[in-house]
Amino acid sequence: MPLAPEHLAFAVCLVLAFLVVVAAIVNRFAPERRARLRTPALLTSAYVLLALLLLGARASDAATAVRWLDFAARLAGGFAAVTLGALLAVDVILPRLRLPFPSIAADLLAALGYGAVTAVAIADTGIDTTSAVAGGTVVAAVLTISLQSTLGNVIGGVALQLDGSVHVGDWIQLENGRQGRVSAIRWRHVTLDTRDGDTIILPNGLLLGTPFTILGRRDDLPYPHRQAIYFRVDYRFAPSKVISAVLEALRNSPIPNVRAEPPIDCVCVELGRDVYESTALYAVRYWIVDVARDTPTDSELRSRVHAALRRNSIPMALPATTTFNADLDHLGGQAQRQRRRERAYNAVRGVELFRSLTDAECEQLASTVNFYPFAAGEVMTRQGAVAHHLYLVAAGEVEVRVAAEDSEAAVSRIAAPGFFGEMGLLTGAPRKASVYAVTATECFKLEREAFERVIHNRPEVARELGAVLAKRQVELEAVTSHVDAASRAAKEREEAERIGERIRAFFGLES
Questions:
Q1: Smallest Cα–Cα separation from 78: which of 34, 29, 125, 131?
Q2: Residue 254: is the preceding peptide bond cis (ω within 30°)?
Q3: Which string of DSSP letters, residue by residue, matches 455-489?
Q4: How far is C-alpha 289 from the chain's CA centre?
Q5: Which of 373, 374, 376, 372 is nearest to 255 (CA)?
Q6: Residue 92 falls in which region: left (phi positive, over 0), alpha (psi -120 to 50) or beta
Q7: Is the Cβ–Cβ distance between 444 and 344 less than 8 Å?
Q8: Which of 158, 280, 363, 364 shows its CA 20 to 30 Å from the CA of 80?
Q9: Residue 170 neighbours by CB distance under 10 Å
C-alpha cells in the first residue's frame, strides 16, 4: 500500500537529514572521501523528485502510476539510506577505530542492503514478480555462460579481499620479474603501480591462477624485504679480506633506507666458477626500509663497496683471458701511476701544515701515501679513535662532527685541498671529532712511520708544525670564546710551545 502523504513527507525529511548529517561528518573527519557523497546525493534527489511525482499522481487519481511511482520512490529512498549508512560505517567509523574493511566486502554488504530494500518495496507495493523472476532466471543463465571469465575475475576479487592475502600498499613481484605496488583491488582486476610511473592492470583470475611474491611480508619477520647486490673480484684475494673490508665500510656509518638491524652481511657466493673465469662472486645482503626506493639504495651500497675495495687495493674482477695491451687507467698502468704520484705531491705541498717542508721532503712523503677514496656519507674517522695517520683531502668535501649527548653536531667543513687527523699523526692524541664524507671524496693517507723519517732528519720541523697547529686550534676556539687579538696571539705562542713539546716527545726527539 502506498505511503500516506504525511508519512511520505516524514520519510523524505528523514533521508534529507541523514544526508546532511553524514555529509557534515565526512567533511569533518574524512574530507578525502567527499567524492563518495555524490551517489547518495543523486539518489536522495531522485527520491525527492519521485515523491513529488507521487503526490501529483495521487491528485490525478492514476492508480497504476501511483503504485509504480511509490515502488520507485521506495527504492530510491532505501538505496540512498543504505549508501549513506555504508559510507558512514566503512569510510569514517571503521578507519577511526583502526578496523580495516575490504572495499569489495563493503560493496557486497551494500548490495545485500539494496536487495533487502527491493524485497521490502515489492512486498509493500504488491507488484507481481512471477514473470520478472522467470525472465531474470533465463537472463542470468545466459550471462553466466557468456561471462565466465568476467565472473571468475569478480569471484577472484572477492576472494582476495575477504581472505586478506593481498592488501593495498603491498609490493608484488610477478612470475616475469615485474614489480608493482598494489594501489587498488577492484571487482575485476588489481592495479599495480610500478616504479617507472606505469600501471599494470592484472585480472583477478590471472593473479590467483599464477604464483606471485608479496615483498617484505612474512608473519614471523617484523622487518621488510631483504635485497642483495653482487660484485666480483679477483679470486686470488682471500674472501676473509674482501668481506672484512666491505663490512667495515658498510657498517661503519648509517646508510639511508637500510635497516641497522638485522645488520648488513657480505658472503662469498662463488669462487672460480670455471677455468675460464677466475673470479670470486660476492653478495652484500641488506634489509630495506622502503621497497619503492630499492634502485637508489642499491646504487648507494655499490658506491660504498667500490670505495672500500679501492681503499684496500682490491681490484674489481677482470676475465682471466684479458690481454693487457694498453696502458689503461683502470688497469693501473704507468700513466695512471704517474698521475697519482703527481696528485699525491700536490696534496702534500698544497696544505698549510707542510709549507715549511722542502720539495725533497714533500716528494719523500708523497711517495709513501696511500690513495684512500670514500663514498658520500661514509664515516672517515670516529671521535675518540686512536689512529696515528693523517688524511690529505685531494678532492671533495668532508664534514667535522662532535658528539653532543645522543647526537652529533656539525662544527665545520673541510674542502680540498685540506687535511684532518693531524693531532693523531703528530702527537698520538685521540680523534677529537668524527669526520664524514659529504661528497665522493679522494684522500691520501699519511702514516706516522713515513713522517717519522722526515722529522728525525730535521727535528726543527717540530717547532714549525707546532706553530701551525696552534694557530689552527686557537682560531677554532676563538669562534666561540671571542677573545681579542692580543690574547689570541699570546694563546698561540703558548699552544705552539706546548704542541711542539708533544710532537718531540711523541717522536722521541731531544728537547
A1: 125
A2: no
A3: HHH-TTHHHHHHHHHHHHHHHHHHHHH---HHHHH
A4: 6
A5: 376
A6: alpha
A7: yes
A8: 158
A9: 18
User: Do 390 and 414 touch, CB atoms closer than 8 A?
Assistant: no
Cell numbers at residue 287, please?
A: 634489509
Cα 182 to chain center, whole Å? 17
465: phi then psi, degrees, rounded to nearest 5: -65, -40
Which of these, 264, 279, 285, lies nearest to 316 by C-alpha position? Answer: 279
Using CA atoms, how far apart are residues 286 and 406, in angstroms rounded to an integer? 25
This prediction has a pTM of: 0.61
Q: How far apart are alpha carbons 90 and 85 in whole angstroms?
A: 8
Question: Residue 466 corresponds to which cell in the numbers above?
Answer: 707546532
8 A C-beta contact, residue 387 and residue 421: yes
**CB contact set of 93 (below 8 Å; sequence gap of 6+):** none
CA-CA distance, 116 to 95, in Å (whole number)? 26
Query: In the CATH scheme, what is the homologous superfamily, with its name and number, of domain 226-311?
Result: Ferrodoxin-fold anticodon-binding domain (3.30.70.380)
What is the tens place of the pLDDT at every residue in 474-497?
776 665 566 677 777 888 888 888
User: CA–CA separation, 259 vs 226, rounded Å?
Assistant: 10
Element (DSSP H or E) covering residue 251? helix 239-251
Contact 36, 92 (CB under 8 A): no
| pLDDT tens string 256-291 | 999 988 899 999 998 876 544 678 999 999 999 888
Domain ranges of the chain: 5-127, 165-215, 226-311, 332-448, 459-511
Flag whether pLDDT at 441 surpasses 50: yes
Task: Provide CB contacts within 8 A for 214, sequence distance 6+.
Answer: 165, 166, 170, 171, 172
Cα-Cα-Cα-Cα dihedral of 322, 325, 326, 331, to 10°? 30
CA dist 163 and 173 (Å) reads 19
d(CA 326, CA 329): 9
Q: Span 165-215: which CATH code?
A: 2.30.30.60
Per this entry, what is the length of the chain? 511
